[in-house]
Design goal:
It is built from eight helices and no strands. By secondary structure, the protein is an all-alpha fold.
Length: 201
């Protein structure tokens, strides 16, 4: 097996529990399209905005991730696995890391955000509120706080960063109706910080 078997199992178990099971609920219990929960591509009229937002969020975040790579607490934690024999192993590990970010972004910026917002109705109603159990845009705050709580116990820089990332990622997904640009950005930024730390070990 791979040297990072334990990490790989956790990545794919998370993918099954946090993405697979909600997909089953959405399709066969709620009987709704997956696109209502951010799993579709952005609508065609929002493609340009999706690309622009992806580039902006990623490029603006790079200096902060570079700074994080120089903080002792971050260096002690990341990469989650670090005993690579060569660059090929590192690349393979980072590719296997992608399901983790699909799971995290979907459960917070997809299932939770769109489920609470009732976003399927916000195209027709300016407030995005269609009933007593929908929170409209306030769902952005709820998913951000949940995401931040999930990071309790992490290094202080990462914990405080979740406040900004949670709102930014949530607003992006909400606006373009898709989690995929944020998934890609989050994953690439973590590959970046992993590479910086690993190369300096």
């Amino acid at each position: 097996g791979l040297p990072w078997d334990n990490e790989l199992i956790s990545f794919f178990a998370g993918m099954f529990l946090l993405v697979g099971i909600p997909i089953i609920l959405i399709r066969w219990v709620f009987k709704q399209p997956l696109s209502l929960y951010g799993l579709g591509l952005p609508p065609r009229h929002r493609w340009r905005l999706a690309v622009q937002t992806f580039l902006f969020v990623t490029l603006v975040s790079l200096p902060f991730f570079w700074f994080g790579s120089r903080i002792g607490a971050m260096r002690d934690l990341y990469p989650l696995y670090r005993s690579f024999d060569n660059t090929g192993q590192f690349i393979l590990y980072e590719l296997s890391y992608l399901p983790f970010f699909i799971a995290i972004e979907f459960i917070f910026r997809g299932y939770l955000l769109f489920g609470l917002a009732g976003v399927q109705d916000s195209e027709a109603h300016d407030t995005g509120i269609s009933g007593p159990f929908y929170f409209g845009r306030y769902a952005l705050l709820i998913q951000m706080l949940s995401y931040t709580a999930w990071h309790l116990g992490k290094p202080a820089l990462e914990l405080w960063g979740t406040l900004v990332w949670g709102l930014t990622a949530g607003a992006t997904a909400y606006t373009i109706r898709s989690i995929w640009p944020i998934v890609l950005s989050h994953w690439l930024l973590n590959v970046f910080i992993d590479a910086l730390i690993w190369q300096s070990l």
